[in-house]
Design brief:
- The chain is an alpha+beta fold.
- It has two domains: 98 residues, no CATH class; 72 residues, no CATH class.
- It has five helices and six strands; from the N terminus they run ααααββββββα.
- α2 crosses α4.
- The longest helix is centred in the middle third of the chain and has 15 residues.
Length: 170
């Protein structure tokens, strides 16, 4: 039923729209995102935009990629950005927007700002990967994906038996 239709609308149109339905999810999510444009960065207490931060933004192609990050924030109520050193250019970090379904951050107890660790987990081919980011360490893990044709109970058993291992370890 058209929940948004007024009594007058329903009376005038009768059963014309009885089986009508439409998916507005993408339109609703895209609407605020298409109105967002980053035009610069201004640090707190500063009166001018920071040219170095803008150069990092531009060098990483974030004008285009930022729309993906903003859409992720609208859909998932959060967005993750990974900032990492570039061995080819020590002055310009690599910045990427990450899928919120693949990332999680652990915070210090009692703080919503001080980060304790970050984890990114994703699948590629038949392998499950995870990278754990600690303040002074980086850990990488991988494991084979379980077969998808098993019952949920057997898949749970397989998951419990499989261990995360560093790449190349057996």
């Amino acid at each position: 039923p058209l929940k948004f239709a007024s009594d007058d609308f329903a009376k005038f149109h009768g059963d014309r729209y009885r089986d009508f339905s439409d998916n507005w999810v993408q339109v609703v999510a895209d609407s605020p995102v298409e109105r967002l444009d980053v035009t610069g960065f201004q640090a707190s207490g500063e009166e001018k935009a920071d040219k170095d931060l803008w150069q990092v933004w531009q060098m990483n192609g974030l004008d285009g990629d930022s729309q993906l990050g903003f859409l992720g924030a609208v859909n998932s109520a959060r967005s993750f950005v990974l900032v990492w050193g570039d061995p080819d250019d020590e002055d310009t970090p690599i910045v990427t927007f990450e899928d919120a379904a693949q990332c999680i951050v652990a915070y210090e107890p009692g703080s919503r700002v001080r980060r304790r660790a970050g984890l990114k987990r994703w699948q590629d081919g038949n392998v499950d990967y995870a990278t754990l980011y600690l303040p002074d360490q980086l850990w990488k893990f991988e494991r084979p994906l379980s077969r998808q044709d098993k019952s949920p109970q057997m898949a749970d058993v397989d998951d419990a038996m499989r261990l995360w291992l560093p790449p190349g370890a057996e």
